[in-house]
Amino acid sequence: MTTTFTEPSESPALLLLGKRRDPLSERGVDCPGGLPEASDPDLVERARAAKAALGERVFILGHHYQRDEVIQFADVTGDSFKLARDAAARPEAEFIVFCGVHFMAESADILTSDDQTVVLPDMAAGCSMADMANINQVEDAWEQLAEAGIADRTVPVTYMNSTAAIKAFCGRNQGVVCTSSNAEVAMRWAYDQVGGVDGDGKVLFLPDQHLGRNTAVLQLGLALEDCVVYDPRKPYGGNTPEELERARVILWKGHCSVHGRFRKENVDAAREKVPGINVLVHPECTHEVVTGADYVGSTEFIIKTLDAAEPGSSWVIGTELNLVRRLANAHPDKDIHFLEDTVCFCSTMNRIDLPHLVWALESLVAGDVVNRIVVDEQTQTEARVALDRMLALPAKDASQD
Ligand code: 13P
Ligand code: SF4
């Protein structure tokens, strides 16, 4: 029997990609000039030729979660902190092609000069975590904290995985940006602005509650009871003004849909299956998973830890699957497992594929800039304040995470 799908005629809530009903949710669908077929056997050669034709004019950045087919063309690879620094350190490149997600490309646009053009090969490469905090919700929350009488003792700290508008909010409210490589230093800096970690000042941590909680409790020594979760859909985020007054860390109710899938049972199952296995996870995982692990750190830390590991040692890794597979291939002398029993790619990171990269590069060769990421001037200026505060923080080597 053949089943055909018929689009419901009366369902305004259901948006089908490519129907042009909602330009925002459909960003990335149109590729003017035509997207090459994924089956084109010449894609690798086409990408190579376009990159060679652009020469020094183009600089390609690749986040560790990108597909192998894309990573092979990256001039540099890194975690979001390293890529932000790399973008800022390349003033001579006319085009920065960002193989990563939207918030990373926005940060690159903020950190590069007006003469430089940042391109995201597929506009649909967003981030579900970044989408969990929009600027209107954050402004409302700040007003609620003011009503509760604590905004003047609260420093906003936003994870890099947030929109430029939220970074700008942090810039104009004496806050800072952090990444998973420097969340501890950034949070300490934030508390120092309001009397230190042992005082009564507070941090509003956006948008990843897990990174915020894991850093506050495991690295700064605060208690779990010092943390409250702020749900933007509820008055006072679902807390009483007294609870907000007592809290030291106000955690935005956001999470990563990839790292949120790992469970403590996965850790227990891995230990049971391979006695002596080392459990290595990203701090976007839940507190339960992180406290059950042996090592915790950013993608850059995960890579360095595996590089330094003894041949023959066993590892189970809780982060995105493209990176874990690449690590397993790069270390055939080590026994490397993935901390989940189902496939766990980041679907938006995976949006950047070879056809989109070829399309973006060939368009640049032809003189057409496609998918340019532009952050407006006011947002840039304010967000840059928070990003520069982050870049000025004392550097901590990723191997010390
Ligand atoms: P890092 O690369 O900063 O470790 O972040 C991981 C991530 O989820 C990026 O989206
Ligand atoms: Fe966002 Fe998580 Fe994907 Fe990173 S891995 S881009 S935080 S959804």
Tally of contiguous helical segments: 15
Task: Using the coordinates shown, work out and report the CATH topology of the largest domain.
Answer: Rossmann fold
* CATH architecture descriptor text of the largest domain: 3-Layer(aba) Sandwich
Shape descriptor reads globular
Overall structural domain count? 3
Give the structural class. Answer: alpha/beta
The CATH class of the largest domain is Alpha Beta
Q: Spell out the helices and strands N to C.
A: HEHEHEHEHEHEHEHEHEHEHEHEHEHH
Mean residue pLDDT: 91
What is the strand arrangement across the widest sheet?
6-5-7-9-8
Q: What percentage of amino acids are in beta strands?
A: 5-15%
**Distinct small molecules bound, one entry per kind:** 1,3-dihydroxyacetonephosphate, iron/sulfur cluster
Beta strands, count: 13
First CA to last CA: what distance? 56 Å
* Radius of gyration computed on alpha carbons: 22 Å
Descriptive notes:
The chain has 401 residues and is α/β, with parallel strands linked by helices. It has three domains: 42-126 and 348-370, Rossmann fold (3-Layer(aba) Sandwich), CATH 3.40.50; 130-256 and 380-391, Rossmann fold, CATH 3.40.50; 259-338, NadA-like (Rossmann fold), CATH 3.40.50.10800. It has 15 helices and 13 strands. The chain has helices at 43-54, 68-71, 80-88, 102-111, 135-147, 164-172, 183-192, 209-219, 241-246, 264-273, 287-292, 299-308, 321-330, 354-365, 377-391, and strands at residues 58-63, 76-78, 95-99, 117-119, 154-159, 176-178, 202-206, 227-230, 249-252, 278-281, 295-296, 314-318, 335-338. The strands form three sheets. The protein has a five-stranded parallel β-sheet, sandwiched between helices. A four-stranded parallel β-sheet has the order 2-1-3-4, sandwiched between helices. Bound molecules: 1,3-dihydroxyacetonephosphate and iron/sulfur cluster.
